[in-house]
Design goal:
734 residues; alpha/beta; Rossmann fold; nine-stranded mixed β-sheet; seven-stranded mixed β-sheet; 23 helices; 21% strand
Amino acid sequence: MKAFLRLLVRLLFRYRAFNEAALNIPGPVLLIPNHTSWFDWLFIGVCLDDSWKFVTSSTTAEKSWFHRFVMKNRRTFPIDNASPYAVKHMAEFLSKGGKLVLFAEGRLSKTGTLMKLFDGTGFLIHKTHAKVITAYLRGASRLPFSPHPGVKRWFPTVTAHFSDALSAPHQEHLSTSQSRSLFTRWLRDQMVGQQFRTEMEFGPTSIPAAIAETAAAEPGKVILEDATLTELTYRKLLIGAGLMGERLAQQCGTSPRVGVLLPNVNATPVVLLALWQLGKVPAILNFSTGTATMLACAELAGLKHIVTSRNFLKRAKLDAAPFEQAGVKVIYLEDIRATISGCDRFAALVGSFFNRQLAIGNRQSDDTAVVLFTSGSEGVPKGVELSHRNLLANTRQMLAACDLRDDERFFNAMPLFHSFGLLAGLILPLIRGNFIFIYPSPLHYRVVPTVFYDKDCTVLFGTNTFLSGYGRKAHPYDFRSLRYLFAGAEKLQQATAELWAQKFGVRVFEGYGATECSPCISATTPLEPKHGTAGRFLPGVEWRLEAVEGIGEAGEQAGKWESETGHSPTSPLSHPHTGRLFVRGPNIMKGYLNADANAKFHAGGGWYDTGDIVSVDAEGFVSIRGRMKRFAKISGEMVSLTAVEDALAGAFPQYGLRCQTAVVTRPDEDKGEALICCTNEPKLTPAEIRDAIKAKGLSNLCVPREIVVVKEIPKLGTGKVNHRELQALVQPAK
């Protein structure tokens, strides 16, 4: 019968199993698969010998004769889910050398992704010291009998991926309750890490290939819409990219990199896909930095061509003449559209029904996919080369950690020249198959909530600055459909989190990263929330902390979210450690365009110096203390400017929501450095600032010595404070 069933699933689902040899070990051992369809038992069972038993629910087994037939037989281990003795019976069986298959989620997934694990599994591991084998069933969520609301197919490709036998990190000094939680978290780490590694090994190796794979399954799905309310299906997106690619090939010649100077409109992803199709690297310019900075970035990237729009240049009040004078040819989308006839569109449409795949060329995973430029908040922007592997890794890291569904609707007002907006707001949903509404400006604080409400979106993200603006201007019902709210790019302030919680009943999930990391390194999620932290490291991210003189208790610990030995960061750290964070992993950049910075990066063996001081607690949650450059040495003590800014944020409601503050430094002969509070509120007094600092429990060293009133706190296009410009305003006259 098993041989027959194996042949059947092979024929119907092109079924294959990987690393089956790991199953041939003596007990006690637990096999823990993800659980997305009613046929998961079949895909697992055809690989097991008779010594294995499936844990089933005796209550569910009584629903019908079919349930009894499947769930009560010699290959099952029925338990009463409501009985407090159920775990005890499983522990007794394992202690005798038993081998159990346990669906630790306790139910079929309602999202198509990994849901929470019941901590009874952690208790079993603690009590029996059983070996653990995890299994990832890839593709089973697409079966018609999966309960999630997403896409279903009658005969999807299904594969089973088994891990090696793992040993949990037992620690004798922990109580049963602590061990229960530790092992449950450890098990989830293993399952999420296995999903990420499997997708990296068996998924497409370039961004256009990954998008084309999703598009082939749903060519008629509306995937993009912009502020003009123009909708694009996958088919239209790929047709547009093909037609655009043919025209750009004639104009760009052999130039390896092509500049992209466009806002958040449908044309931008079309241009990006067209350039990838041609094997060229888009270098996305940050138009908020001004012409001079863009020219410097264009020179750094060696750009000979820039794709833009006359309409956009007019609205943004930008002049193309300086680019032409610098020898850069400006290509206008309006001119390209004029060369595409109705016959061309019709021919491409007919051809798409015979070939749904995007012509992706010979793209290798380590080829550069995009060049982005750092924000320049503290210095001259750097050119960052991110490969296809980098961006795909970060996409899959986030998809493994978050329970995103097929019916999510993304709202992206973050500019696509920013790594957060590009990856989380465009590449990830295009690969995942989620609808995206792209909006041209994150600064329209009244309009964004209204459009979000009108489009019934479920996912929103932005910087603390933008989220604070939306929260102040929105109606309490505007975000009724919001399921995921992510904050990144700058530290989430307590006042912003409280505003969203109290006004909308929404929890803000904070992430942390950098352009060089594609960008995400860690994130909080509904499955692993911890307010005040930036979450746990994503799968595949290695990290280490280096001691910094005068800042907390620095540890020279090294960790890995998912190491070969199966240990998570909970193992090496018995208590929090603080230090300068270095990270390494598949999402870390290919390198810099800047020669000196690139040489320094590669000399470090692939470790990226974030320049941030962080604390990592015993559960692996990361708390950002501030950038190393944003610490001041006052009377021999290191003071975090970020911590001072957090203490002042939202601390002066008497002046209204418009009141903003930022902190910079000035040399001081007596104490080394002095803190300067910059504000746009002229009535703010030193006493009020001192009281706000003390209310947060900070020392007197954190109290700014002076207040400088400015018309506006300067901001970058991403919403972050432009500390470089602000610092220039308060420098003493020479």
